[in-house]
Amino acid sequence: MSNGNGQDGARELIAFCVGEQEFCVDITSVREIRGFAAATPLPHAPSYVTGVINLRGTVLPIVDLSLRLGFGRTEPTERSVIIVVTVGAQLVGLLVDAVSDILTVTDDNLQPTPDLSSEMARSFVKGVIALDGRMISLIGTDNVLPQQHDLAA
Amino acid sequence: MDAMAEIRATFFEECAEQLAELEQGLLAMEAGETDSETVNAVFRAVHSIKGGAGAFNLTDLVQFAHVFETTLDLVRSGKLDPDMNVVRVLLRSADVLTDLVTAARDEESVDPSRTVGLADELRVLAEGGSPMPAPVLAAAPPPPAPAEDEEEFEFVPVAVDFDDMFGPAGQEARYRIRFTPRAELYAKANESARLIRELLALGEGTVLCHAQDVPSLPELDPEGACLSWTVELTTGVGEAAIQEIFEFVDGDCDLSVERLLDPVADVAGAVDDDIAALLARIQGETQDEAAPEPVVAVQESRPEREEAKAPPVAVNAPANANAEKSAAGAAPATIRVDLERVDRLIDLVGELVIHQVMLSQRVMQAGLARASDIAIGLDELEQLTREMQDSVMAIRAQPVKSVFQKLPRLVREVAERTGKSVKLVTEGEYTEVDKTVIERLSDPLTHMIRNAIDHGLETPEKRLAAGKPEEGTVRVAAMHRSGRIVIEISDDGAGINRKAVCDIAVSKGLIPADATLSDDEMDNLIFLPGFSTKTEVSELSGRGVGMDVVKRSIQALGGRVSITSRPGQGSLFSMSLPLTLAVLDGMIVSAGEHTLVVPLTAIIETLRPKSREVKAFGDGARVINVRESFLPLIDVASELGYRAEPTDPMNGVAILVETENGQRSALLVDGIQGQRQVVIKSLEANYGRVPGVAAATILGDGRVALILDVDVVAATSRFETGFTSGALQAAE
Q1: Which terminus of chain B is less hemmed in, N or C, by CB atoms within 10 Å?
Q2: A143 vs chain B: nearest CA distance in angstroms?
C-alpha cells in the first residue's frame, strides 16, 4: 500500500481536471476511481449534488466538483470519472472531467493558497503546487457535501 | 477498547445470558418444575455471575450473589422446599441481581435498601431451612431426582454437612477428598496442582497421588488423564468451601468428599462412612461400565462426553419431554459474530441479487430462447441467490424470546405497585424477527403491558365482584402471519370504557361532541395524539406519554397497531410488524420520469381520479373526493421538484395513504409499475436526511430509487410549510 506521508514529508496526490484547471486530492482519502454512472437525483438538494448512485450496495452521493467549485455544470462524457473519497465517516463521489496524474510532492512543493476572496479559495483550496509550469490546486474535501442544516432547511 | 475493557464487556454479555437463564429457570420452578436439572441451572447462573463479579471486584454484586447462592444451594440440596413463597423471593432476588449487574456495568450504584431487604429475606429462608437435624439428613436418601439425571449431578448423593455450613466456624474436621480429573479438565486449561494447592490452603493435609493407572510410555496418551489424588484435610471451613474449589471443574472430574470421623467415632458414623464408600464405589462402577479400560476410555468417550456437555440437557432429557422445554434446554450451538460483519454480508448478497437480475435481463434482451442452457442456468442462479438472501437475512433473525423474557419482571413490578394480582401468559416466544425489530419492539411492548395492567385490569375486589378470578391474566403472543409478525397483548380486564373515552376525546376537542362513532372507532380514540384516559398522568403507564407515542413508534417500524375491546371481557391490542427492517414491501411508482417506492404499509388503496372528483382548493391546491370526504391531492413529482407544474390528475393514479397521525391524503403519481420487496439502504450514512425521502433502495437495473416518506410529503402539503419546488436540477 502506498503511504501518503513518507518520512521525508513526501505525499502522493491524485491530480484531475475540472474544466481547464487542475486539482488534486491526497491519495489516502481516495477509495476508488470509477466510470461515470447516471445518478438518481435527490429532492431539495443543492444543484451541485447530482444525485446518488449504487456503489456495490452503498448509496453514494455524487458531487459535481465543477459546480461545487463555482464553475459551470459538468457535462458528463465517457471520459468523466467519479473519484470516491472518504470525508470523515462518509463516502462521497466527486464527478470530474478526467484523472490526469499521480504526483509525489514534498511539503516544500506546496505553496500557500493565493490570497483571493473566492469561495473556492476559502473553502476548498489548501495550497497550490507548481510543477513543470502547471499549477495544481490541492483541495480538501471536508466541505464538499452540504451541511446537515442546509439539507433540513 | 483495551483488553481489560473487552474482557469486562464479555463478562457483562455473559451475565445477561446467565440472568436470562436464571429468570427462565425460576419461572419454570414457579410453574412447578423443581427437578434438579432446573434448580441446578438456576444455581449455576448465580454462581457464575458471582465468580465473574469477584474477578472484577464488584463487591456489592458479589455479596448479594453470595447470599442468593447460599439460599439456592439449600434448594439444590433439598433442604429448602421451593414453594411459591420461596420462589417469589428468589424471583425478586433475580430482579435485584439484574439491577446490580446493570449498575455494575454502568458504574452506578443501587439503592442499598433494595438489596439489604432482600438479602435479609434470603437469609431468613436459609435459616428457616436449617433446623432440620443434620444426622437425619445425612442418613436420608438423596432428594428424588430423575434417574437419568444422576450422572449429571455428582453433588446429589454427597451429604452436605449442614453444621459445617452454618455452624460455628473454627470447628475442625477431617475430610478425605478423592479427586480424579478427566482429560477435559486439562483441555480447559485447569490444573490439578493448583486445585490441590488451594485445598491445602484451607487447612492441614496430606496428599497422596495415585499413579498406578499411568501406562507405559508407548501407550501413553499425552492428552489423557491418568493421575488421581487423595487428600486428607483437616479444616474448619466446612464441606461447602471444599466443594467450592472444585465448582469450576464440576463435570470434568470425579470428586468425592467424605468427612472422616474421629477414631472414637460411634457406630452410626462408621455406617455413614461405609455408605459413602459404597456410593463412591457405585459411582466408580458406573464409570467403569461406560469405560471398561481406563486409559482408552479417555479417548473413546471424549467425543461423546463433549456432545453431552455442549447442550447440557439434550442427551439426558427424556425423549418425551415436551417440545417447548427441550427447545429451551437444548440450545443449539451458536457463535457470537460482530453485527457489522453480518450486515456486510447482507449488503453483498443484496448486491449479488441485483447483479443476477441485471444479468438475467441482459440475457433475455439478447434474445436467447427460454429453454436454452444459459437461461436454465440463470434460473438456477436466481433460485440460489434468493435462497442465499433468505438465509443471510435469517442470520439476523432472533426469537422474540429475548423481549418476552423481560416481561415477567415488568408484570411483577407493575402488579406490585398497582396492588393487582396478575398472571402473565406468553405464547410463541420462538417466533423469529430481525434483531433491529426486536430491539425497537421492547419499548412499545412494555408500554402496552403497563397499560393493560394499570388501565385494563380491575382491582382484585372488583374482579371478584364481577365474578372473575381474583388474578387477572395478561397474554402476550407472537406469531407469523403472511410475512409479518403479529404480536397480541390481551387482558381479561374490564375493556375500554367507551363512554369515558368519548367524553375525554370531546373535552379535548379531538372529536366533535355530536360525532357518531362505531365501537371500533371509539376504542381507537385512545391512539389519538393528546389523548390520555387518566386525568392525571399515572406514574406507571403514563410517564408523560400516551398510546399515540406507542402507535407512532410502531409505525416508525413500518407496523400498525389496533385495538379491539369487549366491555367486561377485556381488550386486545394487536401489532403487526415487518419481519425485518432491511427489506420493505413497496409499491414501485413512476413520478416525473423517476422511479419511487411507496411503503405498502401506508397505502390504503389506489384509484384513477375522475375529473368530477378533483376540485381546486384555494391557491393551486387540489382536493379529491373519495366517498364523500375531501382529501388533499398531492402531486408527488412536483412536490419533490421533479417538475415545476403539477400534472393533470386524469393522467395519473391516486394512491390513498394514511399518515402516522391517522390523516389521509391522496398522492398523485404518473403510474404504478408493481409491488415488490425492496432492500432498504441508508441515505443518511453518506449524505444526510432528505425531506420527503425515508431511505433509498437499489432496483433490479442497479439504479438507486428513493423510498418516499409518506408522512412528510403529506404533511408538507397540508401545512404549506413551503417546499421550494423546482429547485432540483436533474443531472441526466
Answers
A1: N
A2: 12
